[in-house]
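Milestone M4 deliverable, item 7.
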Amino acid sequence: MNLLTDLSVQYLLLALIVMLIAGLIHGTLGLGFPMVATPLLALVLDVRIAILITLLPTAVVNLASVLGVSDWRSVLSRFWRIPVFALLGGFVGSWLIDRYDPAPFQLLLALLIFLYLCSSRFKPEAFSFLSGNNSITMPLVGLVAGFAAGTTNVMVPILIIYSLSLTLSKDRMVQLFNICFLAGKLSQLIVFSVSGTISAGFLIATIPFALVAYLALLVGKKIRDRLPTALFMKIVRTVLLFLGVLLIIQVWLQ
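Output delivered:
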């Protein structure tokens, strides 16, 4: 696939800047890379191209985030159903975005951003029923989250809603999210590779993006303890609100 060679230098530089910003945010908060990178790129490209360009960088960032902690295995052993079914949901979502007009999925991306922004107003007790039957709720949450990731590259809102029903520490919650993100990336990689949408050459060409994202992730981890989380989250949420509105306007104009 010659997608990158078809893009102008300005777009490639923009993509590198987006990787830098999203990597810093992910490193500081422990999550957020695809949720920031995808809408930023979708504003000037489209959701499908944004997903393809961020495929390897997101996988690298998520893998580094998972392996960067020592107890990720205990989180996986408890919640393994969610990433497994996220993988299955991701197959369906990736197949759809690979074959159909990406414009409707751009609207879905905007709606997921708004869902994330509203999640802080949700009361934990409103979702207590989700923790009642894990043999049903975990696969369902995984399927929905995987589908959302496959079509829009964003599953955080779905996982946050589920996490409200759990008694998990912030660190373990972030670990679970990154494991699920990684499952979503694996499904995209398989679907896009089998369909011929991407090739080994394309992934190699996106290594500079992945490298920038990884280095930004490391920097973000360094500043995590220096920047007040509340202030940083306020900035991120404001930016996401702005992006969500712009995505909806863009779809309406199309």
